[in-house]
Amino acid sequence: MKKSLVEMKAGEAGIITDIQGGHKVRDHLDSLGVRMNKKVEKISHMLMKGPVTIRIDNLKIAIGRGMAAKIFVKVGSKNTQ
Fold first, then answer.
1. What is the model's pTM?
2. What is the pLDDT of residue 7?
3. H or E element at residue 62
């Protein structure tokens, strides 16, 4: 199932399949290590449009909700490659 990071529940994990947005968005995410085909796990999110916290490459990263809505993940278990 494909979901945006915003739609995922805490603890869900999967592989990044699509990043929507222009070069600025993609370049910024790339600098954080958020890239296509990378495994990502949603750690938490804040209520009322706060940031989304994810784990990628054993790093915890907080991403703004608007940007997180542009990142789509094929959701599976935590053990997804």
1. 0.86
2. 93
3. strand 59-63
d(CA 75, CA 49) in angstroms, rounded, equals: 22
Higher pLDDT, 80 or 72: 72
CA distance 81 to 5: 17
Residue 23: φ, ψ to 5°: -60, -35
The pLDDT, as a whole number, for residue 45 is 80
Q: Is the pLDDT of residue 17 over 80?
A: yes
Q: For residue 21, give the 3-state DSSP assignment.
A: coil
CB atoms within 10 A of CB 22: 8
Task: Give the angle subtended at the CA of 42 by the CAs of 25 and 59, to the nearest 5°.
Answer: 75
Tokens of 44: 């938490």
Domains in the chain: ranges and CATH? 2-76 (2.30.30.90)
